[in-house]
User: Fold these one by one.
Assistant:
Number 1:
Amino acid sequence: MSTAVAVALAIPPPGRHGPAKAAGQRDMLSEHGGLRLRLTRIQTALPAGRERGAGPASPQQLQRSVPAVPWDCGDCPTSPPARPAAMAPMGIRLSPLGMAVFCLLGLGVLYHLYSGFLAGRFAFFMLSEPAAGGPETPHGSAPGGAVDLRELLAVSVLAAVRGGEEVKRVREGNVLNAKAKGKTREGAEEQLTTGDLLSNRRMFYLLKGAFPAVQINSEERVDTADQETVPWDRSIPEDIKQKIQPQEVPAESVTVWIDPLDATQEYTEDLRQYVTTMVCVAVNGKPVIGVIHKPFSSYTAWAMVDGGSNVKARSSYNEKTPRIIVSRSHAGKVEQVARQTFGNKTVIISAGGAGYKVLALLDVPEKNQEKADVYIHVTYIKKWDICAGNAVLRALGGHMTTLTGEEISYTGSDGNEGGLIASINMNHKALIEKLPDLEKASHK
Ligand SMILES: Nc1ncnc2c1ncn2[C@@H]1O[C@H](COP(=O)(O)O)[C@@H](OP(=O)(O)O)[C@H]1O
Ligand SMILES: [Mg+2]
């Protein structure tokens, strides 16, 4: 198709040639890639022998080139010439060799145009599978367009850092303005501070401005009357560029979860080491990108599933008598159950923040970061609290599941009912089998 069009465009209109070339038959030479091709342009609208311009054609030439005109030529051979076998559109006749060469050229052009494009679409389609139980996205249809996960990672890191600046500024200025925003199901008071709100606003509008077509779920309500423009210069940090390849997914397959201030309770108590800001990117409900940032020590961990990370697992874990890290302000019955399961000697570390507790399982070069082997939570918890940690663990080969071992889907509702257990470089299934009573404990 493109070959025919290219050929048609290459032929100048009648009258643009000199008189010698303005005859009923025009010979054109085309060179491409070292091949010299001979094209013959035929004018069928004028009667034979009365073409525009000078120089009558020889009978041999006419026999080759005037197939459609009724035979009415006294000086010419007595029988009409045979119709040529191969005629291309626009009146171009090609020899069999010319046809073959043009076909090859056309195929070459098509391959060149579409090979890179198809390779890019392949990764796109691979990640286009629908979420379990979610609405089906037909392969290849992307009404919201495509988003590059590497760009999403870059802007997620920036959002966590920029939100963290607000968290730190409010804490250092001692202008928390803490108030109760409600109660948990277990009756614990939930705090809200100016740090939560300002961080939430900054993180949300940075991500929304960069990726308007993507669904963003953030912990705090976004006041549309109080919009902020937080520009993104589209630059990608060097470490991300080196470790991560661009990878496109349909915008509607993505859900971003923002936790603008994890460990708000501890923030109000000035226990700064527990505080993190977090961003998670889920694709079809699966956590794929996780960013956990500590604003008070400027440490950031990021990881992308099947991509890369700037953080790694520790070299060893204690599987037999694991140190269990649990919530200090939403513990439920976790301590009791952990001791029943792993024995009374099991060390239990109480700490604030889901982000902090995931970092406790990793090799984090922070002096204020405790180390643990397993993270267990038995009460209800929200997806923005756990999605980033889940993605980071998954990217590094670890697991975060409900207490019965189910994967947590990061679409739809914002709550996770089944508690959680997180581990890395351990037999996660065996850990779950040891926890027969925890499921009941989570519904105390
Ligand atoms: N039972 C519950 N209900 C609601 N939120 C809970 C919860 N248990 C824990 N969380 C939230 O999960 C995060 C980590 O909890 P914890 O520090 O207790 O481990 C905190 O988030 P925020 O600080 O972002 O509000 C906390 O509020
Ligand atoms: Mg939180």
Note: The CA atoms of residues 30 and 37 lie 5 Å apart.
Number 2:
Amino acid sequence: MANSKPHVILSAAISIDGKISTRSGDSKLSSSEDFIRLHKLRSKVDGIIVGKNTVIKDNPLLTVRHTKGKNPVRIILDSKGNISSKSKILQTSKQIPTIIAVSKTISKSNLQKLNKFPVEVIITGEKSVNIKSLLKKLSAKDMNTLLVEGGGTINWEFIKQNLFDEMIITLSPYLIGGNNTISLVQGIGFDKISKSPHLRLKSIKRLKNHLVLNYLKV
Ligand SMILES: NC(=O)C1=CN([C@@H]2O[C@H](COP(=O)(O)OP(=O)(O)OC[C@H]3O[C@@H](n4cnc5c(N)ncnc54)[C@H](O)[C@@H]3O)[C@@H](O)[C@H]2O)C=CC1
Ligand SMILES: Nc1nc(O)c(N)c(N[C@@H]2O[C@H](COP(=O)(O)O)[C@@H](O)[C@H]2O)n1
């Protein structure tokens, strides 16, 4: 029988000051060795989740390319179904299984746009995608391990709702700065440290000047 909630790993590369992108949208913080590590991890999970802004800013493929292995299912959280028909995600949906999770706020025209592609559209949630219910639906499809690859707003939602189990963060040797640049965790944030999830450091791996930190939620 499928678990009611998949094992959820939050994954990102951050600068020393905790940013995941520069003000112009440059987010390539990992080294070539770290991208190989990331792609090995991708090949072992059932699905990769990202938020709409990450698709708009990065135009990612979310595939396994730097190692051999199977592509996980790509799951995009896009409440209003706004991602572009020209995005690599939709353009490659014939070859790579793709789920677009939307909420009831999606317009007819955006639903029609998505339905022109061979993607599965999951409608859940009133305003935003209901992540908890989505995870249950993914679990029912036998998707037991999910990698959340950002961005900061989606990371906050998983943390706030206590829906993650593990974090794998690459600390990259850069300083980005900026009052308005995107951090690993966006949203309103916790008002007290006591409200933060408690994490146990499971391992540290050094890849030259990059450190890969693996935390488990206590
Ligand atoms: N360095 C790294 O490892 C990574 C960097 N990034 C960077 O992060 C940036 C994007 O991050 P953000 O702007 O924070 O956006 P995001 O990628 O977290 O997407 C947020 C959007 O998701 C949609 N959404 C759907 N359901 C939602 C829900 N239940 N709750 C909240 N939002 C929901 C909303 O439209 C919301 O605006 C990009 O610049 C990207 O390059 C993203 C991933 C990894
Ligand atoms: N772990 C990690 N390190 C970085 O340096 C990154 N920029 C990201 N970004 C995530 O990977 C997506 C890009 O994937 P593709 O190379 O297009 O397959 C990007 O959209 C982020 O989710 N992650």
Note: The first strand starts at residue 7 and ends at 14.
Number 3:
Amino acid sequence: MGCQIEKLKEEKKTGSSIAYGCDELGKLKSVLVHTPGDELNLVNESNYEHWLYDEVPDISGYVEEHRQYQGLLESNGVRVYELSDHVDENRELIRKMPNLTFLHDTAVISGKGALLSKMRPPARENEEVVVKEALNNLGIPILSEFNGSKGFFEGCLLLSKDTIFVADTERHTYPFILEFISNILTEFEEVIYTRIPKARRYMHPDTVFNRIREDLALAYLPAFEETCLFTEDSSERIDFKAYMQEKGMEIVPVSDSEQNRLACSFVPLESGTIIHYDTSLDRDTKKDLAGEGVEIIPFHPEALLAGGGSLRCHTLRLCRRKK
Ligand SMILES: NC(=[NH2+])NCCC[C@H](N)C(=O)O
């Protein structure tokens, strides 16, 4: 611990920065996580829905599984940074935020800096303030953030150094999406926007789509109600599957029941290798993926399921690199 603090001071003092950027689907090098703590005590029988939990978490089991997951990452060569080691000013906030552990939703890290979310009040309000401080202390610049307070935007997916995927979910307001798209198109070539049903099971973009490799992804296409491609000077309706196919990406469909078990939300360790809940995919889908040469590193969740999130949701990917 002492040595972490020394390190933190040093990072601040020298303003040095760690390697960052997940634009390429290369080997996962480093992540930011938040091991949940006292804040989980806020969630009880009468308020778990308010706190966006599916049930009251078994705290020791929850923390234990989170630690096991961190161990799995480390044993696969991923450097794991702990959020609270890099937060000073906003430490008090951490104890009030039972969803802070779902760091995936608060920021996406591109090679040009972080795309910071604006979390939806009341349950997730201000999580981005804590994450911003940590990223700052780690030396990762903020590329985009929201200034207005009358809306929310809980994240996007970075598909490459040119392409961002935005889903219009129950956790996004349309004016914030438009603001995001117009700002980010100065840095990225295109934004794929898709409207999906406003329901908890589709709360974030990772619930309907994710890449396993540059040429392979899992998606739940029935949720794609309308998809548009935005570039600096045009916007047009597209067929998502056909557009991705044109770009050389095949989509393996998941079923309604798999989508509901977070099938599309996994952590690529490297291109073609994913860490995933062992409860998310049916045998047939696993077989299809094995046929494609995909390796799945299974993780069995019990207590973690109470939070309604996947391993991916618990993981803010900081750096990926192709060898
Ligand atoms: N990217 C995700 N699917 N995150 C899941 C977040 C779960 C969290 N309890 C919430 O409802 O906000």
Note: The two ends are 32 Å apart (CA to CA).
